[in-house]
Design brief:
Elements: E1 4-12, E2 18-26, E3 31-35, E4 44-46, E5 51-53, H1 56-67, H2 81-86, E6 89-94, E7 98-103, E8 106-109, H3 121-126
Parallel strand pairs: 3-6
Antiparallel strand pairs: 1-2, 2-3, 4-5, 6-7, 7-8
Length: about 130
């Protein structure tokens, strides 16, 4: 994870207030680390299916990253957003010391941090 660079994304949180999300992007590992205290892009729980799903805010942010050519190869702009999401992994670092991982179309909560090698230590320490 030597090739990590950081950036910020601004969007509306659950209370329709503008909040900032910190991103650490590992292009080699095809991974996005998202520090989201304001819950702008965090997964939401769908009670109908009893599972977490990606939020509208995340889809908007991911589409911007895809169009900017982040985490894509030469043919990346030809991919749909769904194809782009499947090829990348996202870690969400959110309040109450919770970490969620989106990979290959599903979201899981990371309970044992020692078993997950790809966590971004800077964000783990901050939550």
């Amino acid at each position: 994870m030597e090739q990590i660079y950081q950036m910020e994304y601004r969007g509306l949180n659950l209370f329709d207030e503008i909040s900032t999300v910190e991103l650490a992007i590992d292009e080699e590992g095809q991974t996005i680390h998202i520090f989201d205290v304001g819950q702008v892009v965090s997964p939401i729980f769908n009670f109908d299916v009893s599972a977490y799903e990606l939020s509208d805010g995340f889809y908007k942010m991911a589409d911007i990253l895809r169009h900017k050519g982040i985490l894509t190869n030469q043919t990346g702009n030809e991919r749909t957003l769904s194809e782009w999401l499947i090829t990348n992994t996202a870690y969400f670092y959110i309040p109450q010391k919770r970490i969620k991982k989106y990979a290959q179309g599903s979201i899981i909560e990371i309970v044992d941090r020692t078993k997950e090698q790809s966590l971004f230590d800077v964000y783990v320490q901050r939550i």
